[in-house]
Amino acid sequence: MARRRIIAGNWKMNKTPSEAVALCAELKDLVKNDAVDVVYCVPAIDIVPVVEAVKGTNVKVGAENFYIEDKGAFTGEISAPMLKDAGVEYIIIGHSERRDIFGENDILINQKVKKAFAAGLSPILCCGESLALRKADTYKAWIERQITWDLDGVTADQVKKLIIAYEPIWAIGTGETATADQAEEVCGLIRELIAKLYDQATADEVRIQYGGSMNAGNAAELLSKPNIDGGLIGGASLKPDFGQIVNA
């Protein structure tokens, strides 16, 4: 089946609010494409000005993190209902930087996926392997385990609205990129796993992104693969190149 392409920028911890508004203005005409879902996942402090800056355009706004409780004594955290009320539609969950630097495990990530759906947000669920796991040839089992844990108790109808981002950790911010065939192999494996955990109809509907140093030069080849439905873009999302990826 034809799945709608989704290109999401993960700005990470970059851009002050004024810089974020300027970037939205710079990218506005470059990312116009009614056939593609375009998302800017921005730092929490940038959400309100970016939601305002993209009004009337084809761009949707995502957040990079949140906490599983709706409110309460959780100093420094932001809840899913807060994000929803601010105009956020997507939320990145389980990014390797959250897993590795901040110690988020699959139990917490599973709770986040459920909470995001409960709040009406669309999760972009990240998975991927380290270079050691790739070299040991255990990466397939690792990714299957991540997704099985992360989707425990999540319904088929919810999974159909989910975006899964395959991000080989060894290819994030390193300039290294999985070959189009390597990326397609794992994205195909993920789709097969969803069919096994749920059913073929759910697997056919779920959108799978590639998220490891996709750029203007390699986007077209990666996006030509049958199981790659988009990209989760890091550094290149902060440059005019992002427009070339959206329109690849």
Task: Describe the protein.
The chain has about 250 residues and is an alpha/beta fold. It has 12 helices and 8 strands. It has a single domain, classed as Aldolase class I (TIM Barrel), CATH 3.20.20. An 8-stranded parallel β-barrel has the order 1-2-3-4-5-6-7-8, surrounded by 4 helices. Helix 1 packs parallel to helix 2.
Number of helices: 12
Task: Give the termini distance in whole angstroms.
Answer: 20 Å
User: What is the CATH class name?
Assistant: Alpha Beta
Question: What is the name of the CATH topology?
Answer: TIM Barrel
The CATH architecture is Alpha-Beta Barrel
Cross-sheet strand order for the largest sheet: 1-2-3-4-5-6-7-8
Element pattern in H and E: EHEHEHEHHEHHHEHHEHEH
Strand content: 15-25%
State Rg.
17 Å
Indicate the mean pLDDT. 96
Residue stretches low in confidence (pLDDT < 50, at least 5 long) are none
Give the total of beta strands.
8
* The CATH homology group name: Aldolase class I
Describe the main β-sheet briefly. 8 strands, parallel, barrel
What is the compact description of this entry?
This protein has 248 residues and is an alpha/beta fold. Helices cover 42% and strands 16% of the residues. It is built from twelve helices and eight strands.
Which SSEs are present, and which pair or pack?
Layout: E1 5-10, H1 17-27, E2 36-42, H2 47-53, E3 59-63, H3 80-86, E4 90-93, H4 96-102, H5 106-119, E5 122-127, H6 131-135, H7 139-150, H8 156-160, E6 163-166, H9 180-197, H10 200-205, E7 207-210, H11 219-223, E8 230-233, H12 241-246
Parallel strand pairs: 1-2, 1-8, 2-3, 3-4, 4-5, 5-6, 6-7, 7-8
Helix pairs in contact: 1-2, 7-9
